[in-house]
């Protein structure tokens, strides 16, 4: 028999939160039809910062300058990277799990500026029992080490922690580390998330 799931570890983007209209549309006011190219470049540049190595804002500032953007980097960062809308239906499931005695935790790839914004302005530090940000752990998903470190922080066996994420490679990384894991994003509807939880013996009902 598999171990009883006692904890749920949630990804953030695509699961708990969204960027309205998407990243490309958010960058278009600054770089026009080069938004896709710009973002893929800066996401590549950002990878070390996701693992806690380096400072992202100077890197972003250099990219903006290279693309001829004169708007201050903080203004662009606030308008795009901090433009986060919470998915209330997802958060209500988190709260219901917490009420029912399950451990609820956050497992997300973020550099420090966006991560700190999520911790404080979005209230995630108050919502979750344990928060596992990649910049803080020093390793990013899908590396299985991210998940073994998360399990250590949670203080539970990996087999008792269900991981929910919208990206297939992150699901694979979690399973490699011994966590049961399911791919899901909010566009699939919260009835499906409820079904996934039920299939793992987890109840959100009072």
UniProtKB/TrEMBL annotation:
Q: Which residues form the signal peptide?
A: none
Does the entry feature the keyword Hydrolase, yes or no?
yes
Please name one Pfam family that this protein belongs to. Hydrolase
- A GO molecular function held by the record: hydrolase activity
What keywords are assigned to this protein? Hydrolase
What Gene3D superfamilies is this protein classified in? HAD superfamily/HAD-like
Give the InterPro entries listed for this entry: HAD-like_sf (IPR036412), HAD-SF_hydro_IA (IPR006439), HAD_sf (IPR023214)
Which spans are transmembrane here? none
What is the protein name stated in its UniProt record?
A: Putative hydrolase of the HAD superfamily
Task: Name the species this protein comes from.
Answer: Kribbella kalugense
């Amino acid at each position: 028999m598999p171990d009883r799931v006692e904890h749920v570890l949630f990804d953030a983007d695509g699961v708990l939160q969204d960027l309205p209209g998407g990243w490309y549309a958010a960058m278009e006011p600054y770089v026009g039809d080069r938004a896709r190219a710009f973002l893929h470049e800066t996401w590549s540049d950002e990878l070390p910062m996701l693992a806690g190595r380096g400072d992202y804002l100077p890197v972003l500032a250099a990219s903006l300058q290279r693309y001829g953007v004169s708007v201050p980097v903080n203004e662009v960062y606030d308008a795009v990277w901090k433009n986060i809308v919470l998915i209330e239906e997802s958060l209500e499931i988190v709260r219901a799990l917490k009420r029912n005695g399950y451990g609820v935790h956050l497992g997300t790839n973020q550099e420090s500026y966006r991560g700190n914004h999520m911790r404080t302005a979005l209230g995630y530090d108050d919502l979750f029992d344990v928060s596992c940000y990649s910049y803080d752990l020093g390793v990013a998903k899908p590396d299985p080490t991210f998940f073994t470190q998360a399990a250590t922080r949670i203080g539970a066996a990996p087999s008792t922690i269900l991981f929910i994420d919208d990206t297939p490679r992150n699901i694979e990384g979690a399973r490699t580390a011994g966590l049961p894991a399911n791919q899901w994003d909010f566009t699939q509807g919260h009835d499906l998330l409820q079904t996934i939880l039920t299939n793992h013996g987890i109840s959100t009902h009072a």
